[in-house]
Amino acid sequence: MENLNKCLVCGHTNFTKEITCTDFVATGHNFDLCRCDNCSFLFTNPRPDANHIGPYYQSDRYISHAGDKKGFSFIYRIYDVVRNYSIKQKIKHIKTYHDGGKFMDLGCGLGYFLDGVVKDGAFDAIGVDISEDAVNYVKKTFGYNVKLESELDSMQPKSFDVITQWHVLEHVHLINERMQQLKLLLKNTGTLFIAVPNSESWDAKFYGPFWDGYDVPRHLYHFNQASFALLMQKHGFKIVETRSMPFDAPYISMRSEVHKKNNFVFIRGAISGLISTIKAKKAMNHSSLLYVVKHAD
Ligand SMILES: [Zn+2]
Question: How far is the CA of 43 from the centre of ligand 1 (A)?
Fold first, then answer.
């Protein structure tokens, strides 16, 4: 276990333990979340270090082979349709910023989004992932150009117009180092699209320790808008737009219902997702947020 002795965002050394959560998908182990007394950053602490986190990813949710599970299940079909629609919407939004150029999907997983970007045809896209299994899967399935995260350091500086990270940054141990890599790789006119769960959302408060967005210990950080903005500022970035991820509220709510061992998870989750979306409107406190980020200078 790795015990953080200072806040990774602001460097402050005083934290307050806020909530204990359970790993519902792999081990059943409990983990505490601490909040920085200075900047309100919420993080899993202590946390398994990078060399010991592997076993916590040994579940259907994270193993690359999960993508092979086609079947005829109705739920899988809905999931497929929603995913494909959501990929198209993401690309459409990105194209309001860039109509072409070099594109990296960092944390590409099984490559579904990368596949959407390549097929769209506007960008010269590559995928990058931490998992060798995932990289091999994408190469084998789609034949695309995918690299391991360890290769980021040897990439050409200032070469990417767009870098996307869909629910990835909350998993990265060396988060400051990662932000510096992004700072280096992104062109001066480039744009980052970073989606993370929002621990200030209605569904986070409603489900408490059962909230699927905590997903301990795989999620090392539990951002709110303030702590995310601070992290960006620290690394010379600015947020130019904040958007909701419309399908995340019902999805996260349904999974939270499963953690609570409730019945009727789809109906309950759909209702919670709807309430969360309605409540989020004013303060943009959606279940997950997509931040559009550019160089500050
Ligand atoms: Zn702090």
Answer: 10
Cα 201 from Cα 191, distance rounded (Å): 25
Strand partners, 31: 21
In angstroms, what is the span from residue 33 Cα to ligand 1's centroid?
13
User: How many other CB atoms sit within 10 Å of the CB of residue 122?
Assistant: 16
Q: Calculate how far, in angstroms, residue 175's C-alpha sits from the geometric centre of ligand 1.
A: 14
42 contact partners, CB below 8 Å, separation of at least 6? 18, 33, 34, 35, 36, 199, 221, 222, 223, 224, 227
CA-atom Rg of the chain in angstroms: 18
Q: What pLDDT does residue 139 have?
A: 94
Q: Which domains does the chain have, with CATH numbers?
A: 66-207+225-295 (3.40.50.150)
State how far the alpha carbon of 127 is from the alpha carbons of 113, 118, 137, 206, in Å.
9, 10, 12, 35
Cα distance between residue 264 and residue 270, in whole Å: 10
* Percentage of the chain exceeding pLDDT 70: 95
pLDDT in the model for residue 246: 81
